[in-house]
Every structure is written in C-alpha cells, then in structure tokens.
Amino acid sequence: MASSDILINIIGQFQKKGFTEADKAFGKLEKSAKSLGRVIGVSLSAAAITAYSKKAISAANADIKSQRLLAVSLNNVGLAYAKVDVEQFIQRLQEQTGILDDELRPAFAQLAQITGSVRRSQELLGLAFDVSAGSGKDINSVVDILTKAFLGNTKGLKTLNLAYTDAELKAMDFNQVVTILSQQFAGQGAASVEGFEGKMNLLNVAASNATETIGVSLITALEMLSADNSIESATKKMKGFGDAIANNITATAYLIRELGKIPGAGVLGNIFGFIEDRISFFSPSNAANLLKQIKGFQGMGNISVTKSSQDTQKAQIDEARRAEEAALKRQKEILALLKQQTKQQKAMAAAAKKQKQEEGILAELNKRFEMDRIQIAAALGGQINDVERLRLELMQAILDEDVKRAIILEGQLIKAEAAAAELATLLDSLDEMVGDPFADWPGTITRIKELLKTLNIKIPIETLFAEKGLKLDQEKMTVTKLERMDVNANNVYINGQVASQAATATAASSLGLPADIVDLFLAGDPTAIHAVEQNALANAALADAELLLADSMLLESSGDTNITVIVEGNVTTAEDLAEVITDIQYTYQKTGKGLLLQSRAI
Amino acid sequence: MPVVVEGIVGLRKALRNYDTNLLKEFDTKVRAELKPIVNDAKSKVPNSPPGNLYNWKDTGRERKSRTGRARAFPSYNPSLIKKGLTYSLAKNRQDKTGFVSMFTLFNRSAAGAIIETAGRANPSGSSRSESNNPNAGRIFIGAMNDIGGLKDYKGQGQKTTGRLLFAAYWRNRGKALDAIMKAIDVANVQVGREIDKSKKLVA
Question: What percent of chain B has pLDDT over 70?
C-alpha cells in the first residue's frame, strides 16, 4: 500500500507490539519527572516533600560519587588536569544526547584509561553516541566495542553490521575503524534526538538534573543545619523546614486561588507573578553571586592576574601537552605491537598451513609406493624406461621429503602414464585397423611418434609395428601385413638403447661374419642376407650337433659306477661286508667326489 | 484453560479456527456494507473530465512530466479511477499510533486522488503555484467541485475531507459502521457458542 493512497479505516485495533520503545521512553520520563512533578505542582504535603527530598539527596549522592570516580580514573591515567573540562564536556554531551551523565562518566573513564588522551576520549565518546543511536546498542556496549577495537580486538565490530568481513576488520587499524564508523553512523545521534524517544530522553535528563540539583541543595542545607554535629537537631530542623516549605507553598497556592475569585483581582495575579520571579531568582548560584557582590571584587574568573596563577595555568597547559604526546606515543606503540603481532600470526598460520599441506601431499604420495631408498637407487642405476625413471625419482623425492620436486614429478608421472596408456591402446588397435579401409593411418602414426617422443622411448616405430606383425612404410604412409621379418642391425634395441656401430660390429663378429658381409647385410643386400641366413642355419646345425654330443657325454658320465671292493681278511657274514663297503664309501666321499647310490647296486 | 478472544484480529482468527463458514458469513456481511459506499463513490466519477477540462482526458499517449517530478500529471481515465475505488477486508500495517485497520476503503488511482483532495488545503488554489495562469488552481478546483463539494466524513478537518470516497462515506452517515459493529457482535456470539460447544465436548 503506497503511503499516498487515499483511504478510510473503518475499524481499527490497537496493537501493543512495536510500541515497547515508546513505553520505555515514557517509563524513563515517568521515573524522574513524575516525582519531580509531585513536589512541584501536584502534591505539596510535607510527607511528599520529605519523600522527594530523600530521592533527590540519593540522586545527588550518586551523581557526586560518579563524579569522584571519574576524577580518580582521570588521576590514575595522568589526566587530572582535565577534570573540570571533562565534567563540562559530559554535562554538555548529556544535554545534547539525552544520555544521563551517570552513564557517560563510566564510558568516558573507560575510554580515557585506554587512550590516555582527553581529546581522543571526547571524540570517541561522540562517535559512540552516533553508533549507539544507529545500531540500537546502549552507549556502554558501544564504548566496550571501541575500547576492544583500540586494542586490536575487532570481534565486537561484527555486531555493528559494518558490511566488512572478519578478515577485513582484522586487517584494519583503529583509525580506519573510526573512519568507517564515522561514515556509516554519521548524524545518527542527532537524528535520534530529533525523534520522539530522543525528546523523551532529553526531558528525562532535564528532570534528573533538576532532581540532582535539588538534592545537592538539600545536602548543603543539611550540612548547614547540622553544623553543631547534632543529627537529632538537624533532623528536627529539616522536618521543620520541610513543614514550613510545604505550608508556605500550600498557603501561597490557596491565596492565589482565593484571590482569583475576587472580581478585579487580576492585578494581584501579576503581583504574584512578580513574587514567583523573585523566588525563582533566589537560587543558590544567584545567592552566591549576590554574596560576591556584597563581599566585593574577588577575582577575574578564569583569567589569572597573579604570577602564581599564571604559573599554574602554564603548568596545566604543559601537563596537557605532555599527556597528549604520551597518549599519541602509546597509541603508536600499540599499533606497532598489533602490526607485529598480526604479522607473526600470519606467518605462523602460513607456515602451519604449508606444513599441513605438505604432510597431506606426502602422505598421499607415500601410499603409492612401498620401496625403500636403496631399492630406488639400485633401480635408477639400472636400465629403465622413462616412466619407470619418473616413478623412481618420485619415490626418491618422497623419501627425501622434497615436496616441491615430488609435486613436479607427480605431474610428470601422471602425464607419462597417460601417454603410455594411450600408446598401448593405439598399438593394440593396430590389428583391427589393418582390415579397415577407412583407418586413419597418418593420424595414428603421427600420434604414436609423438607419444614415443614424449615418453622418450627410443624403440623405432617400425619395430613396434613389426612386433604386431605389421610392416610400416613411412614414406607412403602405408601399413601391410608382415610376411617376412628383416632384421636391421641399426634398429636393434639392446637394453633400452640403440646399439652403436661398434655394438653392431660386435654383434656381427659374434656371428662369425666378415665385416664386409656385415656391411652388405646392413645395407639390405639380398645375397648378403641370404648368406647370413645360411650361416645362421649352419651355426644352428653346428649347435645342434654340439648339443647332441654334449648329451651323449652327459649320459656317459652319468652311467653306473662299478666299485671294486677288495676285502682284506675274511668276510664271514653279510654284516661284515656291508660295514666294509660303508667305510669305503665314506673314504671316497672324503675326497670331495659325489656318490650316487642305487639300492639295486647294494 | 479459558479461551480468550481479544479484539477483532482475535475474533477473525477464532472464526477461522472454529468454522471457516462463520468467517465467510461475517466477511459477506461486512462486504455488503462496504460495497454500496464504493459503488456510490464510483457513480460520482464522470465519463469525461470534470468541468470539461481541456487536454486532461486520457488519449492513450504517455504524458511527460513538465515539472521537476519524475511522474507526470496523471491523465483522466474514468475506468482507472473507478477501478481504484475499492475496499479491503485484510488487516493492514500498523500505523505510527499503534493501530491496525481491519476494514479499509481505498481510492488508489492518482487521478482519483486528485479529484478526491483537490482544494481541501487551499480552496482557491495554492499561492505557491508555478503556473503561467494565476487562476489555474482556482479554475481546476472549481471544475472538480462540479462532481460535488468536499465533505468531511469524520469532522477532523483536512485529512478526512474529500469528494469521491470520503463524500460517499459521509453520505452513508455511519450506517455501514453500525452494521459492521452489529456483524462483529453476532460473530462474537457465534464464536462464544462454538467455544461452549467445544468445552462440552471436552468435558
């Protein structure tokens, strides 16, 4: 519903919800103003005056107490020189904000203790009022938040809904916090005073102040009355005073009312107005001024005319300057400490994070392997392919706890394993591709070459195709079934390395061939190839013959051995014979020769 | 435990809880009282701009603001004005004095609001008028008075004074309010009966 709608509300109902603030404001005002009103114009009995007097004295006492506490606090932080100024500031702020001085004094003392500066405390208290009005928190809570923020604890700032993250708030220094708060809550305090509740608060302050002022006067009066140190006397006099005042006020009111009934008595009303003015003029402060006038010239207010007074003022100014400087220095120290602390915390957090991350990575990588360092070193010393080398190096890095290297190697290994898997898949698919007229041989061959290069595998691609029973012609980019395998010594792969020319020669010489035949063979001469094949067949036949010979010799060597037993003396029983034979066997075995025993031989 | 029905908000809740038909019946009675007022107001809306004011009639062309305001002066469209004259049985938002309205009559359209209120603050036109014609305000208000004079339905001055809806409510002379109050009493009794029935059932 737009607010500009023209409408008629037929039946309405009051709902209490949402009116608690107004109730509070009324309640506060009622507390102080009602009792004040009772004595001023509503009920003017002596009992009422006595009851109100008690309350006023109590309020005045509380006020004096809070003033003293603030003064002590200022003394303790070396700001004693500013007691009067601070009190005036609090009174002014109270009148402007509608917050009672009883609340403002502890708040100021708290700020002064932390900042050590009157000026800074005044600024922060003003800011606290704005923030309090804008956030709905009471001023003491806001001062708590500010003092904590001054010491680097920004936790409370979150509750003010500043639209900054925790990390951002932590990173800010106090001056930045103050700037943000000043911007966000600018004018909130003034606006709150303009509202209904604000006006109520101002009234409340005025009423409380009036009560306190009356209370102070009553205390002074009591002191004057009990000058003879007799409480009984003071009580009687005070009661008499109260009765007298009540009677006088009642009588005055009666007189005004009765006179008002007399026709043409308006002039008398003016006379009582004049009397009222005179009575109100007779306040303690005016009385003091009157006394001053009677006593004569007593001084020039705040202007020092004597030398000693000038010295005192100068000393106070110096003290204020020193206190401000000390506060500034302290704040700088706190800021520096906070920065250092934050830096250390960040460094520690980063180190802990890094350590945790590294531990995690190492733990994860450790799961992949269970070999120890020696095995890795031995394996690295041997002939290995690229993937295996990466694995071993990775394991070594894990054992060395070299996280950086381990991560790099892990990445390389993953890539290499993927490439190896792809190569294996491609090679497996070659058989199927042969029968496929649409097979993409150029693409497949190029990819295999790339993978071989990536994996640093030095096996020629033709060899890989040959292993699959295929012949690759790279010039024509064709693949056919391999009917005959020609061995090209240039592409002999020995232990992961291409054999060198010397190695080729060695290989050739091991076949018992002359060097020129080997050259022709390497050039692919069919005659030389045929000769090598024949030679190989001859060698094979020779080897077979040698094998047969070796077998026959083995059979011969493993035939039955006849042992001639010469028995010295007589053999009377079979047991005697067995004993002799056993002794001979032992003697034979002692020579280190083996002995095959067959039961049938015995 | 005693059942407490507090106010009309509570009464409506109770009606809904005990028997929705009771609530429907209650609403029908209230509607029957509000509708004639709205219809009366609608009947006062002329088909052409009051006083035959030149160039106020809605031609379908979008008007542009000739002042600093973003919104242009609204065109006179009788159907829109009639559409804006309506009522509601819904509880509205709490006002600053803490009250919620239970039944409301509305004059929602901008042109309707102008007809309703023109001249109630300055019967001869505003002294702050920036028009080239010094009599523009007086002429416009005079044209509006062709519909009927300003009527104060509540006797509270400017804010309760108008020509369309307010005047219709004024003409109603409180009949609607009486009827609604009666309907509330009846509903209250009905709820009481329902509560008694429930108590007996529980017992």
Answer: 96
Rg (CA), chain A: 57
**For residue A213, what are its two tokens?**
């002022």
**DSSP structural state of residue A78:** T
CA-nearest of B33, B175, B19 to B103 is B33
Q: What angle do CA A29, A31, A36 make, to 5 degrees?
A: 90
**Residue corresponding to tokens 């040959």:** A466
Q: Which SS3 state, helix, strand or coil, does residue A541 take? A: helix
Alpha helices in A429-525, H assignment, sequence order: 430-434, 441-454, 461-467, 501-510, 515-523
Q: Which residue has the higher pLDDT, B203 or A296?
A: B203
Given this model, what pLDDT does residue A198 score? 65
- Which residue type is seen at B25? E
pLDDT (tens digit, 9 = 90+) per residue, B34-62? Answer: 999 999 999 999 999 998 887 899 988 88
The per-residue pLDDT for B48 is 92
Coil, helix or strand at residue A471:
strand
Place of tokens 């469209």: B77
Give the burial string for A46-55 (b: 16+ CB within 10 Å, else e): bebbeebbeb
3-class DSSP state of A494 = strand
Q: Do B106 and A9 touch (CB under 8 A)?
A: no
Residues of chain B neighbouring A5 (CB-CB closer than 8 A): 106-108, 113
Half-sphere exposure of residue A222, counting CA atoms within 13 Å on the CB side? 15
Distance CA A148, CA A204 (A): 30
Task: Report yes or no: A7 at the B interface, CB cutoff 8 Å.
Answer: yes
Report which residue type is found at B130.
E
Q: How many CB atoms are closer than 10 A to CB B113?
A: 21
- Nearest-Cα distance to chain A for B91, in Å, is 9
pLDDT band at A309 (very low <50, low <70, confident <90, very high): low
**Which chain B residues are Cβ-neighbours of A18 within 8 angstroms?**
94, 98
Provide the number of CB pairs (under 8 Å) joining chain A to chain B. Answer: 74
B58 CB-near residues (< 8 Å, 6+ apart):
B75, B76, B77, B80
Say whether pLDDT at B117 is over 90: yes
In the prediction, which pLDDT does A185 show? 83
Tens-place pLDDT, residues B61-72: 888 887 778 888
In this prediction, the answer to ipTM > 0.95 reads no
User: How far apart, in whole angstroms, are the C-alpha atoms of residue A426 and residue A422?
Assistant: 6
Alpha-carbon dihedral sign for residues B145, B151, B156, B160: negative
Compare A14 and A34 and report the one with higher pLDDT. Answer: A14
